[in-house]
Design goal:
With 339 residues, the protein is mostly beta strands. The protein contains 2 helices and 15 strands. The chain has a single domain, classed as Porin.
Length: 339
């Protein structure tokens, strides 16, 4: 008998980004990238499943990252060596997202982030100054996902991921002295950045295995800077601990009278970023590199319409360029309403 998983378990596809990753080491602006936040399957990893035709969602995704920072003495020491370093203590990025199933194999959506970059520190003339906070709307991202493979026999799906980040974010926020924050500290990048990737998903009984890769092509934007290309790569294992039956049939009728379900999720979320450079050819040696989070997570579903997800990212492997500190912890919470 054919499994109903591929016919009936839609995954909400939603942009985050980069992830996913909102720290300046690998994504200079919160709200970049693509992430999957679904009814079943992973939280950050993008699965290959698409929304059934006519199904839609809206959600609120809140991403918080706490950074390890340099001491004032260390910043002054590096400044004397003519090494330009600036620190951010916390990054909070609420996002509003929405998606719609145009067909059973094609989902489109939009994501609107708002950036709160707190505790920016910089060094001028051997003095550490608290430059303040960079706060404002981030860049809007449009996305599309096309499923080109749905093999029911082997429980295997594959999809093409596309997206476009447009320069809609604020790019003129200033520090306490009235000077413009640097391009990588602004809420908006000022650049048009296309995204292209691939997602693969396979089900094994109550387990779901998902993986995706996504490449962001960076172009020149605010202050003549190119913030660098970004590669996201994610792998996830999900387990349905409390099962309420298939979430939706193809006609969208529930297949179980149970009101709730619970999924346990473990993800590895990685990203590689190029070093940014300015229009004058200056390359920032203290940005970019590789970072991988190990992210356990939990999702609760109620009445097939409300979904709450929580992911805790712990930096596990990092190879960062120049003088950088790895992030401390990353928390991601999502509330989704399905229609």
């Amino acid at each position: 008998m054919k499994t109903r998983f591929f016919l009936t378990k839609p995954i909400i596809v939603f942009l985050l980004i980069s992830i996913l990753a909102f720290q300046p080491v690998w994504a200079h602006h919160g709200g970049e990238g693509v992430t999957g936040v679904g009814l079943a399957g992973p939280i950050i990893t993008v699965p290959a499943y698409t929304l059934p035709k006519g199904l839609k969602f809206i959600n609120l995704l809140t991403d918080y990252t706490n950074f390890n920072t340099f001491s004032n003495e260390k910043l002054i020491e590096l400044d004397k060596r003519h090494e330009h370093i600036h620190d951010t203590s916390n990054l909070l990025t609420p996002n509003i997202g929405a998606g719609y199933g145009l067909t059973d194999n094609l989902t489109i959506g939009i994501r609107l982030p708002y950036i709160f970059r707190f505790g920016i520190k910089d060094v001028h003339d051997a003095n550490v100054g608290k430059a303040g906070n960079a706060i404002g709307p981030g860049d809007i991202t449009f996305f599309g996902q096309y499923r080109f493979l749905k093999n029911e026999k082997h429980h295997l799906n594959a999809a093409l991921l596309t997206g476009l980040k447009i320069p809609s974010g604020v790019r003129r926020t200033r520090d306490r002295d009235g000077d413009l924050f640097e391009a990588d500290e602004q809420p908006g990048s000022g650049s048009w950045d296309p995204l292209l990737g691939l997602a693969i998903s396979k089900k094994i009984r109550q387990f779901s295995l998902d993986a995706n890769g996504l490449y962001k092509f960076s172009t020149r934007g605010s202050q003549g800077s190119d913030l660098g290309d970004i590669v996201n790569y994610n792998l996830a294992v999900s387990y349905r601990l409390i099962k309420d039956g298939d979430l939706y049939e193809t006609n969208k009728k529930p297949t179980s009278n149970k009101k709730s379900s619970m999924d346990l999720i473990l993800e590895a979320n990685g990203l590689w970023s190029q070093k940014p450079n300015t229009i004058h050819g200056f390359v920032d040696e203290n940005h970019g590199g590789s970072l991988i989070y190990l992210s356990p997570g939990l999702r609760l579903t109620y009445d097939k319409k409300w979904i709450w997800s929580l992911s805790c990212g712990l930096p596990t492997i990092h190879d960062l360029n120049g003088r950088q500190r790895a992030p401390n912890i990353r928390l991601l919470s999502v509330i989704t309403r399905v229609f």
